[in-house]
Amino acid sequence: MVERQVALVTGASSGFGLLTVIELAKAGYQVIATMRNLDKQGPLLEQAEKEQVRNQIVVWPLDVTDRAHIIRIPQKISETFQRLDVLVNNAGVSMGGFSEEISEQDWRTSMETNFFGVVFLTQACLPIMRQQQRGKIINISSVGGVVAFPGYSPYSASKFALEGFSESLRLEVAVYGIDVVLVEPGAYRTEIWSKGFSHIEHTSQADSPFRQPMQAVVSFGKLLTRQADQPIAVAKKIVLITQKRKPRLRYAMGKGAALAIALKSLLPWKIFEAVIIKQIHKK
Where are the domains of the chain? Predict the structure, then answer.
């Protein structure tokens, strides 16, 4: 009898995380679904029952900004499953605003969740994969980790850092049979963006000198989100990546994601920035 492979997914209460847990379970994985607040596990478990994969999913509490939580994870994995084949670092937040006005707390929350949480959880799980001589680490980045847009500097800063970390890590661990992959979604219909827009609107100041361009950024973001694809496509792609013998480093996904990355690479910066600045300062 072939032993079931084990995957751990962070940020599994909604969005990409929830759907990825379900799709991995449907593909035959034993899935550890982690989330900061277990009170939010209802939608995941309902969907698991509907898809008849509830027995393949366990839900564990994990706050990726809490080192004490992270430190306990490897031992719990070893005691419960004795293996870890896939780690999907999905937990994230979208903090925005114009840089001059963003609070220190928002900067720190963005980096602690989107970057340091990934780094420290990956550090904790790597020994298991290294000893196995196999594994896949899939980091959910963003088109915003390759192309920085105005109004989202904390988000882009954290995702740019994630991209650099992942490139370096991939080169370090390839010899141990471990693949590191970046998935770079554009806009999809997930809660992270609606929460991000709400946060920007509630924290922006009425007399801010950046009020008009910030409103333009939020309006454009909301338009993109309304026109965006369903997030199930990303979850299905993650499952396909886990099944590849040698996956690529980067997978850009979603409407306009590959185009935005290509334009930044091909266009002179002068032209690229002029187009964006013109859009946010339209009267």
Answer: 6-280
Catalytic residue, from 29, 155, 188, 251: name it. Answer: 155
152 is catalytic: no
CATH of domain 6-280: 3.40.50.720
The tens digit of pLDDT for each residue in 214-262 reads 776 666 666 666 666 789 999 999 999 999 999 999 999 887 777 778 8
DSSP result, 201-239: HHHS-TT-TTHHHHHHHHHHHHHHHHHPBPTHHHHHHHH
Q: Is the pLDDT of residue 1 over 50?
A: no
- Tell me which amino acid residue 188 is: Y
Q: How do residues 49-79 score in pLDDT, each as one tens digit?
A: 999 999 999 999 999 999 999 999 999 999 9
What stretches of the chain adopt beta strand conformation (E)? 6-9, 30-35, 57-61, 86-89, 135-140, 178-185, 250-253
Q: Between the CA atoms of 155, 157, 158 and 163, what dihedral angle is there, to the nearest 10 degrees? A: 120
All residues at 6 or more sequence positions from 196 whose CB lies less than 8 Å from its CB, including other chains: 93, 94, 95, 96, 152, 155, 221
